[in-house]
Amino acid sequence: MNENIFRILAALILFTGMGISFYFRxxxxxxxxxxxxxxADGTVLMTIIxxxxxxxxxxxxxxxxxxxxxxxxxxxxxxxxxxxxVGLGILCGFGIYWLFSSIxxxxxxxxxxxxxxxLVTNGIYKYIRHPLYTFGSLLFIAFGxxxxxxxxxxxGILTFILMxxxxxxEEANLIAKFGDEYREYMKRTGRFxxxxx
Length: 197
What we know:
The chain has 197 residues and is mainly α. The chain has six helices and no strands. The model has no long low-confidence stretch (mean pLDDT 86). It has a single domain (3-188), classed as Four Helix Bundle (Hemerythrin (Met), subunit A) (Up-down Bundle), CATH 1.20.120.1630. It has helices at 3-32, 43-65, 79-103, 131-147, 150-178, 180-188. Helix 1 runs parallel beside helix 3 (79-103), helix 2 (43-65) packs antiparallel against helix 5 and helix 3 (79-103) packs antiparallel against helix 4.
């Protein structure tokens, strides 16, 4: 299959996910009237997240501008696996919309909650406590498959690991805010994937 087709599909999926995220984040800031400081997560962790985030976001754009610049990270995946990445990316797009429409104004860029935050247990949050980390990381893994780049896929995995490290702090904040209600919610749901049992 032509490389340009994969680039077009990858761009559509990436920009759709980004558009959904930006729209709902701006809407949450506007409707809540509150813009949270990124200092809530601590200087070291936020520095790592910012540097990693810059590399994470630049890599797909480098591929989209000129795939030859990412040739050093080429895996040589067959078209069937790259198309599987397209399918996974489309599913992630739906998942991203579902999670943002479920959480509403509760979305924040940090592990702290908004003053008027209500515990969301509907939509995707009925099954998973942190779907943004799941779908966001999977989107970059899917993009790595579409771009045939081990580096972009590895960044998706690394992002998930960093978010998993941050998650206990986020959950401690939620327990502090919601107490037993959040503890009970934790028993019913999986952290990143639905609980099977």
